[in-house]
TrEMBL record:
The keyword Signal applies. Residues 1-25 form the signal peptide. This is Outer membrane protein beta-barrel domain-containing protein. Keywords: Signal.
């Protein structure tokens, strides 16, 4: 199931990139800083609820494409029936691309590393495809799938963020 989801996500991202080349180009090449909260649901046991926060730096390029760099903190909470197992804390560091298919709707993806905060935790590869809607007033609402491969931990998360234009 995960392999088919990865293939679907890759095909969707490629289609969005092709479609985005036909959209109207953005006029600015602004720098933006987004601050977000990320409630989510784990797809893998023994975890249930997931909560995180992030900072995302975005550089608009010519056209509908932006580059992103993000970090923050994500906590996977262990379900009660799996206690006394520990919650999983991760500090992700990801780079990515965001493509605006319309002036407000975007698709994107990020790749990077997740640094575990638990004793003896290792560094994990992380990947995260996303879709979202950026409002003109700075509000950004998105949904993403995020997988930390080393920890067998993945989630579907909502991102509620506010972006500040650093170029003004």
């Amino acid at each position: 199931m995960k392999t088919s989801f990865k293939l679907f996500t890759a095909a969707f991202a490629i289609a969005a990139l092709v479609f985005a080349t036909e959209t109207k180009a953005q006029d600015s090449q602004a720098w933006r800083l987004g601050v977000g909260i990320n409630p989510g649901v784990s797809i893998d046991s023994p975890y249930g609820f997931v909560l995180g926060g992030d900072l995302k730096l975005q550089k608009d390029l010519v056209g509908p494409v932006s580059l992103t760099l993000s970090t923050g903190y994500t906590n996977f909470f262990v379900k009660d029936e799996f206690k006394p197992a520990d919650d999983l804390g991760i500090i992700p560091l990801k780079a990515g691309v965001k493509v605006f298919v319309t002036p407000n709707f975007y698709v994107g993806g990020e790749l990077g590393a997740g640094f575990g905060t638990n004793d003896g935790a290792e560094t994990s590869f992380v990947w995260a495809p996303a879709i979202g809607w950026g409002f003109g007033n700075g509000l950004d609402l998105g949904v993403r799938y995020e997988e930390f491969t080393k920890y067998d931990a993945s989630q579907v998360a909502l991102r509620i963020a506010y972006g500040f234009n650093l170029s003004k």
